[in-house]
Amino acid sequence: MDFEAVHVGLWSVLPPLLAIALALITKEVIFSLVLGVMSGTLIYGIATHTSIFGIFYTTADLMAAKVGENGSMIVFLSLLGALVALITRAGGSQAYGKWAAGRIKSKRSASLVTALLGILIFIDDYFNCLTVGTVMKPVTDRHKISRERLSWIIDSTAAPVCVIAPISSWSASVVSYYPTATGITGMQAFVSAIPINLYALLTIVMVFFVSSRKNGDFGPMAAAEKRAAAAESLHDADIARNDDIAKLEVSGKGTFLDLIIPVLMLVIFCVLAMLHYGGLWDGSGKGVYAAFGDTDAGMALSLGGLCAIIVTFFMYVPRGLISFADFFSSIMTGIKAMVPALVILTLAWTISGVCRDLLSTGEYVAGLVRDSNMPVALIPAIMFLIACGLSFATGTSWGTFGILIPITIAVCDQIAPYLSITSLAAVMGGSVFGDHCSPISDSTILSSTGAGCRHIDHVATQIPYAATVAVSCFIGYLIAGFSIKSLGFGGMVAVSLPVSLVILLILLLVLPKITTRKDRA
Predict the structure, then answer these.
(1) What pTM does this model have?
(2) Domain coordinates of the chain in residue numbers?
């Protein structure tokens, strides 16, 4: 169904803000998202003089449309849940945990290896979130790293890495939104923006810095780590009480290769499928990057997941790790375990559609930016804040890219062309920050799903960490805006990046001490 968007001004930001506020207050994400969606369709109904029944029709139609648009992603998540259940049932996860225990001997090493693996899987953030969680959860559980911290590491090495990786689904998205009549190509602009994409760079630095320190956590994350350390097993925590996968009877015959090979096959099949759907081998002469840019990620991931499950069948059933009947019952258990995440994702997609397709939230915010007449030197810092707020409210980085990148570049081209690349980086970094912190963000949902963490717990513990990086970045972009004209782009980067990094490191040294003092008090 096609929806005709309306312009309702300030009312357009109410639904996402209501959903976010209720999620943080009540800790009930589904309830909060439903109210956010219904408030949005109610506003739309009043603006279009729709009856009360029409409002419910609009809600149902919009939700069905979003499920249809993202059907391939729902299939992939279901297949991935099935794969995780099969690996667990065959004893692969348990055997991998024992194998890794002999090589990863400390909590610090487990955190650092998780972060490194997250950086290595840079093709797509969805794929990153779920793959890293599947592989590293047995190891981090053994070393009593909280699921909240695991979620943060996964989330912080997913989008921040993808948004500075030239070969990724994210770079293809950014390039597609970059105006063509600017004198440089979108890819040239993307690569040029990498050194000044402060949020992405500083987030990665923070992950490794905090992971390498013994007492580097602060705020709610420190409390989560204490709970995990005190628990006899992480499966005693709330997250495992309704975890059907955790209740599976585990085969004692599995080896660590029964986890490694299926996950490796998943990676290989997904990458090959992305290239296939992108047209690398269709005779059109496309290169690898162009194929990644034109691919259908959802279809590719679904095909890769299906192929990986076929491989596990021939690995497990003939060897007697799982019986024929248990193989398919485990698939159903894995799909069932993904249902809560799928429900939250569906509602998140729907409220994003309310903002974009019904109430023109993005256009309203963009109009405020266009008419603000902000001082030239403040453009990067202000665009960073606007991108943070818009992506937080709508729960989407890519949607924020599509709204703000063309506007930002157009404004800079008219009044300050030398700020174009810096402002582009600010928009990309701010979009990732909002995506990190928003309870209605799909990547945040998938990070908590991959780690087996309650979604709202992941949001509550990650916000202080993301905000710490954002404060450092905002100061960096202020410096960048005021220094680039006199120092040039290279000189500006040489000043603003180190200053932002120093500020971040100071905060990371001070904040854990403040948390410790409060605990003692």
Answers:
(1) 0.72
(2) 71-162+238-338
